[in-house]
Write a structure and sequence with these properties.
By secondary structure, the chain is an alpha/beta fold. It is built from 13 helices and 15 strands.
Length: 407
């Protein structure tokens, strides 16, 4: 089977727009989670919570679009997807690749799709008793909208579809994209995820679930109170190794293994065994020696139950060897980007492997005995050799794990 490598990266989040500013913010230990007010369109109701919104000044139209007539009319999650994809495509240097557009796949993940447009339409219908909504409402709602928007924006005519598996959506999308290249179905793939769901109804729903933090996101820390919802997008360009090497592309790393599992247990409560199965499968598929040191990009939501369950899964898998590895939890910086978070964390993990630096966990107050992990704390932690294990564990017990290594 073909080897799969990452040749392009792009992102936009609460930390800013672009890979460079994002990486700098992480190394500086910046937390972009802010107490933010979200209201219905007429401001008659509002809710305030710790959130990770993308700054409005970072949402402008990219310059390198093949088709840009519809950008302003798209839902916010599609705009964010295009912004991150534009950077990743430029970073990969596709001009030198000269791929047939039909040989490039697009696999993108989103949990909520065009939720902001959906809520705006529902407000008109149910709040204002309107008899009409915007004529483009349906295309704006579609969960597959990001895949279509990227295809149209860059003239890509290969397979294009959306994965939706809650917080594991973009990790599943990247895994499937890797299989497209391994099997020879596509020569390259644009894969990632986008989410823009900081709407009144969505934030209120998470608040009523009791999952939102009271102050900020504190993964694996004593005194953690919950997660911080965020928005954004992250895109990775995947290519066949031989083709990338032949054209002299910069290679961030190689995707070695993917692991999936279902807890088959509970809609909101995780099960340790499911996480262990997904990690075990990904590591087995990777073919890495059992003594390989790992940079573990945790799911690390900051909720009491999820963090202790993930810590237990890692302890079960690695036992006494757990302290040989390094664990990071970047949701403490950019917030929980829901369906886009797996792609964002893999992107950050790829940068960490390239630079041999693990960004420190933010907002940490002290150790919780239920979450005994070898966390990077205080300052960015340098390391020499390691492979990346990136965890995404979603509501409904849907787990996706990716393994990547340097080349």
């Amino acid at each position: 089977m073909n080897r799969v490598v990452v040749t392009g990266l792009g992102c936009v989040s609460a930390l800013g727009r672009g890979v460079g500013p994002t990486w700098k913010a992480l190394l500086d230990g910046r937390c972009a989670i802010l107490r933010t007010k979200v209201a219905v369109p007429d401001d008659s109701s509002a809710i305030e919570a710790p959130l990770g919104p993308v700054p409005e000044g970072e949402c402008g139209e990219p310059a390198n679009l093949a088709e840009n007539r519809t950008f302003k009319a798209l839902d916010r999650f599609c705009k964010l997807a295009i912004i991150s994809a534009a950077e990743a495509i430029a970073d990969a240097g596709f001009e030198s690749a000269k791929y047939d557009p039909a040989d490039i796949a697009i696999l993108f993940g989103s949990s909520t799709g065009g939720l902001i447009s959906l809520e705006e339409s529902y407000f008109r219908i149910y709040g204002q008793r309107a008899t009409r909504v915007h004529p483009m409402s349906v295309p704006r709602f579609m969960g597959s909208g990001a895949a279509s928007a990227i295809a149209q924006s860059f003239g890509i005519t290969g397979p294009a579809w959306c994965a939706s598996s809650a917080c594991a959506s973009s990790a599943h999308a990247i895994s499937e994209a890797a299989w497209y290249i391994r099997s020879g179905r596509s020569k390259a793939a644009i894969a990632g995820g986008a989410e823009a769901s900081l709407s009144y109804g969505h934030v209120l729903a998470w608040h009523c679930l009791g999952a939102l933090a009271k102050d900020t996101c504190r993964p694996f820390s004593i005194g953690r109170t919950g997660m911080a919802l965020a928005e954004g997008a992250a895109t990775l360009v995947l290519e066949d190794y031989d083709a990338a090497r032949q054209r002299g592309a910069r290679i961030y790393g190689e995707v070695l293994g993917c692991g999936y599992s279902s807890d088959a247990f509970h809609l909101t409560q995780p099960k340790t065994e499911g996480a262990v199965r997904a990690m075990t499968q990904a590591l087995k598929e990777s073919g890495l020696p059992s003594d390989t040191r790992l940079l573990i990009s945790t799911h690390g939501t900051g909720t009491p139950l999820n963090d202790s369950s993930e810590a237990a899964a890692l302890a079960s898998l690695f036992g006494a060897d757990l302290d040989r590895h390094i664990a990071i939890a970047t949701k403490s910086s950019h917030g929980h980007m829901i369906g886009a978070t797996g792609a964002m964390e893999l992107l950050i993990g790829a940068l960490a492997l390239k630079e041999r630096v693990a960004p420190a966990v933010c907002n940490y107050l002290g150790p919780d005995p239920a979450c005994a992990l070898p966390l990077a704390l205080g300052e960015p932690r340098e390391f020499r050799d390691a492979a990346l294990l990136s965890n995404s564990f979603a509501f409904g017990g849907l787990n996706s794990v990716l393994v990547m290594s340097r080349i």
